[in-house]
Amino acid sequence: MTLLSSAPVSQPSASSAARALHNALFTLDSHIDIPWPDQGDAFVDTETRRVDLPKMQQGGMSAGCFVAYIGQGPVTEKGHADAQTQCLAMLDAINRMQGTQNGVTARVCSTVADMLAAQAAGVLAVVPAVENGYAMGDDPALLAQFRAKGARYVTLTHNGHNALADAAVHRPSLGDKPERHGGLSAVGRDAIAHMNRLGMLVDVSHSAKSTMLQAVQVSAVPVVASHSCVRTLCDHPRNLDDEQLDALKESGGVIQITAMPAFLKPREGDGPRTANVADFVDHIDYVVKRIGPEYVGISSDFDGGGAIEGWQNATQGVNVTEELLRRGYDRSEIAAFWGGNFMRLLKKAEEVAEQSAITA
Fold first, then answer.
1. Does the keyword Signal apply (predicted)?
2. Which of 32, 104, 205, 335 lies 20 to 30 angstroms, CA to CA, from 299?
């Protein structure tokens, strides 16, 4: 593999070779938000959503992790109860994204075997997840309810500290100081143990560096950063620095590079922050050179703020494949980036959960 320099800002139409490869791969986007509370009909192609099922089908996507996103609120009994209620309702909405409508068929999948079976049947795989451990409040037992609704990972924090852990971005408006727990709390460590037993991945995107490094040590399953970028290339607290990338490799984890301009490229001048597909793949290149191709994947954060020139919605993922081919990556590496590495972690989580059930 020979890595080439970044492409020009403008992205040409994808080649037939890129389209053929993209359509043949299992392509998974590891982080997609759903509109809430007016989530609309995912089977209808609308201008208001960057991801819906028709766009996924048109774009040759195989699977998407749709998240029940819970914004951080007060760390109180009422705040926790409200967050739990909303999370369960959002997971129910994600579970309704299945069946056949408008020429599109989708299936909610809670295991890797389900996802591969969906691909073999030509069916889109919908994978539920939860963004922000605030949704479980201070009771890790609630995680079992999330898993029962198919959730495959939980992002430990969002912006703002919660009962589990410190976040990369604290919220003074909620009374946050820069640190609350010094990383993981005792509840957070218990929550990770529960996730390991349930077959749910521990997602360290949005987490403080201290939280992330401690989660790597505590979790029996390698952790994932479901939507993060490289701090060396863009100095944002949401991104992972070299020490974190090295810890990720040591544990066998994965960073899913995300299409969020603010995480991809420093602001230039006073204009709006922008980024393109070449900037996105620069972050993949960096991770590959630093720790290897086994530890990096792809996410969009569509409908949660993600969108870059050349990858504006779920119909345009082929442009990422085109740029990866242009840089000299081979089919096996591109397949790993587009879902293979993330699926490896999901499978490992299932194996640890099965072993935990046997030894319980």
1. no
2. 104
